[in-house]
């Protein structure tokens, strides 16, 4: 049968069906839930950075521990998409704030990491302002002018661990709504407005202000993924799955609570038994989560009961970022790469466990293609079997087990450079 004949018969049958079929009743589509303006196609990694443990702050300002602080906020790896400036210590008269403005924020932005300031809900609920819209707007602007603009930060995170009531609740809602006009999805800007809580989504405050938030971060420390769906369900009527991030905690020094979420250096063999790994791979039944977050990121690699202050390699954060991307089928970013002076050694960083492939193109006798695997600490290295010469180009890609290959990083030998 010719195609034209088949099309003619189909048209006739469609017309006959239309004459006899019962007219369809129009169904109103369900309105979308939440404001997904700031959701991204790739899952996010967020982290709370404790300002009082920064190297610019004397250890004597915050505890009786003998070890000096050793971590700089600019040490945070590029796998972290959003870092929270979490200031719960004695930092007012330290060099931290000037360094945040002049060094840390520019460095973080250069690697693609945004930074936001954490406020507490009492900063809103118990503010010394009248219950008027004018006062809410003025105070919201004051918060932005005090905590965001001077440091070049990318928004505000509000930590909600109490339940404002009466006038406090009214004031908190008023300031929250006013902030939503300045930051977050309602503002029409790319600034972030985070709601960080250990409560369920049916809390009166959240029900009243949910339209303002970019993301909800649930402090699910020690809970485990088996309880996460029930927790998510309490938020599901107000926000989209891509706005929801469960979080775990690293063990703090002198902490009486043993969450057991992530301890010691990341080990691929044992990591799946920890809550942190569960959160990286967990998804709600009705969509894709926004990512995960970690508290006390400067304690990455520590075990509970170890009160010493030592540098971190961020092995959990680097590896969980890769685990989350792999579970979501998201190709990793292009690896970093550089050529050593011997012109055969290539080194760089990438997604832990990713396979790295190096191929060389150009005229002449080319080095052979070579492969390696990114180590747990996020580093990789290969040695070519022949020197890279002008104008050869080495192309380096990485690929996780369940993803496509990344975009390529190009490296050339440039004898005239520098």
Automatic annotation (TrEMBL):
Entry keywords, A to Z: Glycosidase, Hydrolase, Signal
Record has Repeat as a keyword: no
Signal peptide: 1-26
A Pfam family annotated for this UniProt entry: TIM-barrel_EndoS
Entry keyword Hydrolase: yes
Endo-beta-N-acetylglucosaminidase EndoS/F2-like TIM-barrel domain location: 47-294
InterPro entries linked: EndoS_F2-like_TIM-barrel, GH, Ig-like_fold
The enzyme's E.C. designation: 3.2.1.96
Catalysed reactions listed for this entry: an N(4)-(oligosaccharide-(1->3)-[oligosaccharide-(1->6)]-beta-D-Man-(1->4)-beta-D-GlcNAc-(1->4)-alpha-D-GlcNAc)-L-asparaginyl-[protein] + H2O = an oligosaccharide-(1->3)-[oligosaccharide-(1->6)]-beta-D-Man-(1->4)-D-GlcNAc + N(4)-(N-acetyl-beta-D-glucosaminyl)-L-asparaginyl-[protein]
Family the UniProt entry places it in: Belongs to the glycosyl hydrolase 18 family.
Protein's UniProt name: mannosyl-glycoprotein endo-beta-N-acetylglucosaminidase
Organism from which the protein derives: Isoptericola hypogeus
């Amino acid at each position: 049968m010719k195609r034209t004949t088949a099309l003619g018969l189909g048209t006739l049958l469609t017309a006959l069906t239309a004459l006899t079929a019962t007219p369809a009743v129009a169904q109103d589509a369900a309105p979308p839930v939440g404001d997904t303006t700031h959701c991204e196609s790739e899952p996010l990694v967020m982290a709370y950075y404790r300002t009082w443990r920064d190297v610019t702050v004397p250890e004597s300002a915050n505890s009786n521990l003998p070890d000096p602080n050793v971590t700089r906020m600019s040490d945070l790896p590029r796998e972290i998409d959003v870092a929270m400036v979490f200031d719960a210590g004695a930092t007012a008269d330290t060099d931290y704030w000037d360094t945040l403005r002049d060094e840390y924020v520019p460095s973080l932005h250069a690697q693609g990491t945004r930074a936001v300031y954490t406020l507490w809900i009492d900063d809103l609920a118990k503010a010394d302002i009248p219950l008027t819209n004018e006062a809410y707007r003025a105070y919201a602007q004051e918060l932005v002018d005090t905590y965001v603009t001077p440091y070049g930060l990318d928004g505000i995170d509000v930590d909600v661990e109490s339940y404002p009531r009466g006038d406090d609740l009214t004031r908190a809602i008023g300031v929250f709504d006013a902030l939503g006009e300045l930051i977050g999805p309602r503002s029409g800007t790319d600034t972030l407005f985070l709601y960080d809580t250990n409560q369920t989504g049916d809390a009166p405050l959240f029900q009243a202000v949910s339209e303002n938030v970019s993301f909800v971060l649930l402090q699910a420390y020690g809970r485990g993924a088996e309880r996460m769906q029930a927790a998510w369900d309490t938020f599901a009527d107000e926000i989209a799955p891509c706005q929801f991030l469960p979080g775990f905690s690293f063990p703090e020094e002198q902490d009486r609570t043993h969450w057991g979420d992530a301890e010691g250096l990341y080990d691929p063999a044992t990591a799946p038994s920890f809550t942190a790994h569960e959160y990286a791979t967990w998804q709600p039944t009705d969509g894709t989560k926004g990512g995960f977050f970690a508290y006390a990121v400067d304690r990455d690699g520590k075990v509970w009961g170890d009160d010493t202050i030592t540098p971190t390699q961020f092995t959990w954060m680097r590896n969980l970022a890769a685990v989350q991307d792999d579970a979501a089928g998201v190709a990793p970013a292009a690896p970093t790469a550089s050529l050593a002076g011997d012109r055969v050694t290539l080194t760089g960083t990438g997604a832990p466990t990713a396979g790295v492939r190096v191929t060389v193109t150009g005229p002449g006798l080319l080095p052979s293609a070579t492969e390696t695997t990114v180590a747990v600490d996020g580093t990789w290295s290969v040695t070519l079997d022949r020197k890279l010469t002008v104008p050869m180009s080495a192309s380096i890609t990485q690929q996780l087990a369940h993803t496509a290959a990344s975009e390529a990083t190009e490296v050339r030998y440039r004898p005239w450079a520098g």
